[in-house]
């Protein structure tokens, strides 16, 4: 995500936290910024290494608490298959999402196919199932990586 996009995302996150009356602490802000600036998903221990370089007191609970908060606020998504985290490009969107993940370069694209989410929710209800969390991840190869293969570069 380009720097201008990460600044915009941080501004949106700050406004959203203010509206909700939750604290967007400097550590939470920095963790979100690091995730937003990463080209793909970022693992918790990579975050910890980067944060520890700036804040000597940073420990795993610090990072995990910040991640829990960011996920709860819809600012970050956990990529289950990679055990990594990615910034949500549209934190104001309140519906479910799907992630396209390139297995080669790690690029992540977020989709909002609300009809798929509605179909899944409806079918779960019909089966008497109470969904607590939904993760839809599609792993494959992006155009760019497939193009490199075709050109031999």
Automatic annotation (TrEMBL):
Primary localization class, coarse: cytoplasm
A single GO cellular-component term on record: cytosol
Record-linked Gene3D superfamilies: 3.30.1490.190, Winged helix-like DNA-binding domain superfamily/Winged helix DNA-binding domain
Residues that hold Zn(2+) according to the record: 102, 105, 142, 145
Family: Belongs to the Fur family.
Subunit description: Homodimer.
Cofactors (names): Zn(2+)
The keyword Metal-binding appears for this protein: yes
Localization per Swiss-Prot or TrEMBL: Cytoplasm
Cofactor note: Binds 1 zinc ion per subunit.
Pfam families the record matches: FUR
Protein's UniProt name: Ferric uptake regulation protein
UniProt cross-references to InterPro entries, sorted A to Z: FUR, Fur_C, WH-like_DNA-bd_sf, WH_DNA-bd_sf
Key words of the record: Cytoplasm, DNA-binding, Iron, Metal-binding, Repressor, Transcription, Transcription regulation, Zinc
Signal peptide: none
GO BP: any one term: regulation of secondary metabolite biosynthetic process
